[in-house]
């Protein structure tokens, strides 16, 4: 872990308290459990180093993501998930609805969804084995390190989002991996396959 978690760094505007409701949340809960059991999102006091999301409708920018300061092991009920409705990158503002704040990496997820319309699920975690073997496995790595939850990190991710081999996995330098795919199960299975190759 490059930086200890210190909370959300963007401005959150909660536009509603309604928690998301979508049948795919059951699969998101399943993958939160897998990430926790496999150590892919290590816990800290009150949360986990990792976040998972899925796009609500093809071609749209809104998505469901795990809540900030919410451990993946505890993400078993709807109130642990937040719908991100809109992100204003110029102002660093995330508009969301739910019972909690959205994950600190909501801007990174939003940027990927905006730039990759075929991507419908994004899983971010921290795994020493994957990080240490990323180069050997041909996983693109951001050129520079950037603090979590910032526009600088968004910029680093966007620098490599469309490079060759960024079809499914990328590594944020000293900040963990991202798996992106057309659906939740494929994003999760890709992480497990990558872990098995380490």
Describe what you observe in this structure.
The chain has helices at 25-37, 106-115, 128-133, 151-160, 184-197, and strands spanning 11-16, 43-44, 47-48, 51-55, 63-66, 81-88, 93-97, 121-125, 169-172, 176-181. It is of the alpha+beta class. It has a single domain, classed as 3-Layer(aba) Sandwich (L-fuculose-1-phosphate Aldolase), CATH 3.40.225.10. Helix 2 packs parallel to helix 4. It starts with 10 loop residues before the first strand and ends with a helix. The model has no long low-confidence stretch (mean pLDDT 92).
Secondary-structure map:
Elements: E1 11-16, H1 25-37, E2 43-44, E3 47-48, E4 51-55, E5 63-66, E6 81-88, E7 93-97, H2 106-115, E8 121-125, H3 128-133, H4 151-160, E9 169-172, E10 176-181, H5 184-197
Parallel strand pairs: 1-7
Antiparallel strand pairs: 2-3, 4-5, 4-8, 5-6, 6-7, 8-10, 9-10
| Whole-number tally of structural domains | 1
The level-1 CATH class: Alpha Beta
- How confident overall, as mean pLDDT? 92
Tell me the CATH superfamily: Class II aldolase/adducin N-terminal domain
The biggest beta sheet is recorded as: 8 strands, mixed
Shape: globular
CATH fold type: L-fuculose-1-phosphate Aldolase
How many helices in DSSP terms? 5
State the separation between the terminal residues, measured CA to CA: 18 Å
Q: From the coordinates shown, what is the CATH architecture?
A: 3-Layer(aba) Sandwich
């Amino acid at each position: 872990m490059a930086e200890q978690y210190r909370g959300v760094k963007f401005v959150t505007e909660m536009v509603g308290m309604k928690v998301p409701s979508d049948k795919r949340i059951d699969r998101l809960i399943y993958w939160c459990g897998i990430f926790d059991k496999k150590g892919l999102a290590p816990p800290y006091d009150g949360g986990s180093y990792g976040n998972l999301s899925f796009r609500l409708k093809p071609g749209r920018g809104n998505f469901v993501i795990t809540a900030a300061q919410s451990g993946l092991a505890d993400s078993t009920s709807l109130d642990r998930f937040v719908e991100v409705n809109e992100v204003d990158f110029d102002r660093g503002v995330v508009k969301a609805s739910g019972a909690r704040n959205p994950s600190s990496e909501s801007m990174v997820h939003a940027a990927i969804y905006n730039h990759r319309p075929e991507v419908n699920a994004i899983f971010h975690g921290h795994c020493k084995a994957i990080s240490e073997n990323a180069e050997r496995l041909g996983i693109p790595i951001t050129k520079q390190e950037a603090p979590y939850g910032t526009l600088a990190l968004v910029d680093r991710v966007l620098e490599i989002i469309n490079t060759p081999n960024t079809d499914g996995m990328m590594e944020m330098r000293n900040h963990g991996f991202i798996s992106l795919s057309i659906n939740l199960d494929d994003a999760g299975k890709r992480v497990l396959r990558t872990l098995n190759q380490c």
